[in-house]
Amino acid sequence: MNASRPVVRRPAFEFPDDISAHWIPGNVEFAHMVNGASLVMPYLEPFLMRSLREGLEQLTDPQLRADGLAFISQEGQHFRAHQRYNEQLKAQGYDELAEIEAQMRSRYARLDRCSLRTRLAYTAGFESMTLGLTKWLVTDRVALFAGADTRVASLVLWHMVEETEHKCVAFDVYQAVYGQYLPRAIGVFHGALDVMRYSIRSYRSLLRKDGLWSQWRSRLRLARQLLRFLRYTGPYLFRAAMPGHNPRDETDPQWVQDWIAGYGRNPDTAPLLDTLHPQIPVPFAINPHG
Predict the structure, then answer these.
(1) What is the pLDDT of residues 217-248, one digit of tens each?
(2) Helices (H), 57-115
(3) Distance between CA atoms of 77 and 8, rounded to whole angstroms?
(4) Closest C-alpha among 2, 7, 3, 1 to residue 162
(5) Which of 191, 195, 252, 278 has its CA 20 to 30 A from that of 131?
(6) CB neighbours of residue 109 within 10 Å
């Protein structure tokens, strides 16, 4: 539940040269998992935007069209922020990432030639995975982000908050334009697994460059994080693939609701997390929720 209308925000995140690729002390593996996902965003999210925009051309419902345009604007803010961060990341000597970026560029160019039904199902499918991802990052935020560089941690959780906020939009557009169950169910795994594939390639390259990929202790730490990821995202994906699924049935974490309320009181300020606080509360919090 707790579905809300998406709001376009333009937080002024800055990513100067002093940001390290190892932006979480003692947790390089998770930092690179996030870095790997960030590298996918400038290729994935413009594709989602193009697909949804084409879907909106088939619709006349004014509210759904307004929500769709807000979704597109939010995703535009996301990928541009990730792109700025990625440039700082790549400048730290990870030249091998250029080949993976070329692969992603080619991949999404090919996907652009698929039918609109396939592309909208992919879009709605990927958006299903982000609900589980948000639940993981919010629930485990202290273990994952304690002491982290607030600029990167804040980017990640802002992005996840807005993914939760617009959780119904891609689903609603697909249902309004096509409404067929089987293509939507296929899209759940098509979108999620495709993005996971390129995220894995990216963080594997990062870990290899750092000399960690071949170290068993590092691989064990990575495996633990991956199991947590699957524990949270797996149930969301399987529920999303079921007949009768509606993302409105998924309850938003309280922390996400509090983040939205807190930012609404301070819309002109970058929502930077206090990663040194024992509970990492929402920015601008005035209530007791963790």
Answers:
(1) 999 999 999 999 999 999 999 999 999 999 99
(2) 62-90, 97-111
(3) 8
(4) 7
(5) 278
(6) 11
